[in-house]
Design brief:
TIM Barrel, 30% helix, single chain
Length: 328
């Protein structure tokens, strides 16, 4: 059985949200006062998560598992969940998308558990701008976390950055230089309509084309072929070997090559980041359904996947869940 949709796309990349909680309050994600977190009893236990991941790998062809949040480092059982995932047939590739603040204390243990890669969100290396965007004075913790990941061998260490008008757009070249100096792979991501406040607007968004033009004033960028299902368009910098990625989720969507499926912390399957409908696996799991039945339900959930996210459609509505609850 495969996780195939009616447009012929096959999902082999599973994004697992471990929690909706986060210790930052980034302006493009959630309000300053935070959000009401999921009740504990609704969140899947470590054993339930591992069982669902196992069904995905053993029965449905999942080969890559990325743990997200909220902030996945806030999940106490993260190392054991990673270790159990790596023990599955084929030893799936494992990664986390994190704000990096806790990696200084956990990177080595996560690497020993079997973590292969990390993506760290960092929009600026200027302390004042960092505080303005995240509403927290924790820049040094993120920088220390990046170094810890590198020291633990979690390479390549990737940095995800969102450019915001009036905040950090002019800092993009300096951020790239900083990442090059430390041998981190930087990817600029268009701001997506996934904020809890529903304040996103296309007019305010810094587009991929603008980002490329800005960087091209400072670097010689040569496009690299062969993106495949990867979201980033990659460019060789000044002849290489280092590269920079630009993810044009809104203006140049890559939906036709999508190979992802998402599992929320409360056990809901989302076949698209922007889906407004979910399929409940938690209830079946807790009601005693066997692995075959859960796999069947999961596969059925993929059949309703739309051909694209539809942001350009006048009828587009943001998902009810914000990014912190969906997982990146």
């Amino acid at each position: 059985m495969e996780l195939i949709d009616t447009h012929g796309r096959v999902a082999t990349d599973l994004r697992v949200s471990l929690t909706d909680r986060c210790n930052l309050r980034c302006q493009y994600c959630m309000p300053a006062e935070g959000l009401e977190w999921m009740p504990t009893e609704e969140v899947l236990s470590d054993a339930e998560l591992v069982r669902l991941i196992g069904i995905g790998v053993r029965r449905l062809g999942i080969r890559d598992v990325r743990f997200t949040g909220g902030e996945p480092l806030l999940r106490r059982g993260l190392a054991s969940i990673i270790a159990a995932t790596k023990e599955l047939p084929g030893a799936p590739q494992t990664a986390i998308t994190s704000n990096g603040m806790g990696l200084r204390h956990t990177a080595e243990a996560l690497a020993r558990a079997g973590l292969d890669r990390v993506n760290i969100s960092l929009d600026t290396t200027d302390p004042e701008t960092f505080h303005r965007i995240t509403r927290r004075d924790r820049l040094q913790d993120v920088i220390d976390g990046l170094q810890a990941a590198k020291d633990a061998g979690l390479a390549p260490v990737k940095v995800n950055a969102v450019l915001l008008r009036g905040m950090n757009v002019d800092q993009a070249p300096d951020l790239l230089r900083w990442c090059m100096k430390h041998d981190y792979e930087l990817r600029f991501i268009e701001q997506m309509p996934l904020d809890a406040q529903h304040g996103w607007s296309r007019e305010a968004m810094v587009t991929a084309a603008e980002t490329l033009e800005l960087l091209s004033d400072h670097f010689v960028l040569e496009p690299l072929p062969g993106r495949g299902s990867a979201p980033a368009e990659r460019f060789l910098i000044d002849g290489g070997p280092q590269t920079v990625g630009i993810i044009a989720s809104v203006t140049r969507p890559f939906c036709g090559d999508c190979n992802r499926v998402r599992l929320t912390a409360d056990g809901q399957v989302r076949n698209c980041l922007f889906a407004r409908e979910e399929s409940d696996l938690r209830t079946a799991l807790r009601d005693g359904a066997d692995d075959t039945e859960i796999a069947r339900r999961w596969a059925a959930a993929m059949l309703t996947k739309l051909p694209g996210h539809g942001i350009d459609d006048p009828s587009f509505l943001q998902p009810t869940r914000p990014m912190s609850s969906i997982g990146g």
